[in-house]
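Q: What changes when flavin-adenine dinucleotide is included in the input?
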Amino acid sequence: NHAFFLCVHIWAALCKYFHIHSEVDMWGSVRTSPSIGLTDEQKDFQKVAFDFAANEMAPHMAEWDLKEIFPVEAMRKAAQLGFGGIYVNPDVGGSGLSRLDTSIIFEALSTGCVSTTAYISIHNMCAWMIDTFGNNEQREKFCPDLCAMQKFASYCLTEPGSGSDAASLLTSATLQGDHYILNGSKAFISGGGDTDVYVVMCRTGGKGPKGISCLVVEKGTPGLSFGKKEKKVGWNSQPTRAVIFEDCAVPVINRLGAEGEGFSIAMKGLNGGRINIASCSLGAAHASVLLARDHMCVRKQFGETLSNSQFLQFKLAEMATKLVASRLLVRQAAVALQEGRPEAVSLCSMAKLFVTDECFSICNQALQIHGGYGYLKDYAVQQYVRDIRVHQILEGTNEVMRMIIARSLLTES
Ligand SMILES: Cc1cc2nc3c(=O)[nH]c(=O)nc-3n(C[C@H](O)[C@H](O)[C@H](O)COP(=O)(O)OP(=O)(O)OC[C@H]3O[C@@H](n4cnc5c(N)ncnc54)[C@H](O)[C@@H]3O)c2cc1C
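A: The predicted holo structure follows.
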């Protein structure tokens, strides 16, 4: 009997912990459904992404976080579904989907694990940069392995002395024959040390953005090394390390675009990156709204369930409303970027600013609704909070987003 009740107890705990599974299955029926307004084709791959999130990611997300596991095999499975190069051209192994499609997929995947999905989004951004700005030899050399996630990529812009002021970067690339000799270091590089392909912004010319070029540096190149693995609040299923160059010789044929185009390439990558990272915040927020709703329906205080409290009802209603508004903004920005509209850069920045702030607030309020339980690692909501906090900081801080939006407003004719 004791063993039986122990089993039931464990089963109940597991069901409660992985409650997100059933939530994901129910998404089509909830008022805040991310399927509203999508085409049948979009709904189809959205379902594939949700199923993958529920079956291949959610059951492991706590363990990946706790043990800091970079889930290479799970990501390779995701790549088999076409998620390794979602907006990369099909002739080099990509899925050839749009920015909106990409957002839909990252939103769904991140319900299963924000941290892993966010890394996949950075990998996709790098693959897109090589596909878009590389010549055919470069595209054919790097993109197929990246799209299959047989190889993994990192984006290297930030340095210890240049974060928000990225154009002041100092890593130097000096031309010597048919190689550039790289010296300097990059800070906070997602995937750093565990990845194979480094898309590096470095200085080949004078001060400022026009002196920056973009080189692809392969792991194993002599002179390339890595710092210690950083200890982080969240994003623990992906390593973050400094990337160090000491007389690191990189073939000139690994340069993307012309000399001096590197900063522009980096920023173009980030426009999409900002939509992607905002989409990861959306997935976390939606999962958190549903977790909060369900907790309100079962938790009793003062003789009734929390769902009877009008204060909490209003709170939940506001969370759901902000979630849906956030999704609309992300999707509008994604379409603008896809169509190359002049307001796209501004809209991507608005989406990143608004959505990562609002979704963090939604997840944080969902944690509050869980009371003390929300603070326990047995409950998924705290991991969503920890994982999306950094979305307000990276790919351009939300203060930098305000700068971009204001500059665009003040200079438009
Ligand atoms: C987990 C993690 C992963 C990352 N992954 C990558 C990666 O893969 N590749 C990569 O290149 N980088 C990566 N980054 C770096 C990230 O992009 C930078 O941390 C970010 O751009 C901010 O730079 P900083 O940390 O140097 O902050 P700072 O630039 O020093 O800024 C500090 C604070 O001051 C504010 N601030 C700065 N200037 C102004 C101003 N003029 N007006 C108002 N406010 C201002 C900023 O918004 C911020 O709040 C990662 C960071 C983290 C934490």
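Observations recorded in class: The two ends are 78 Å apart (CA to CA).
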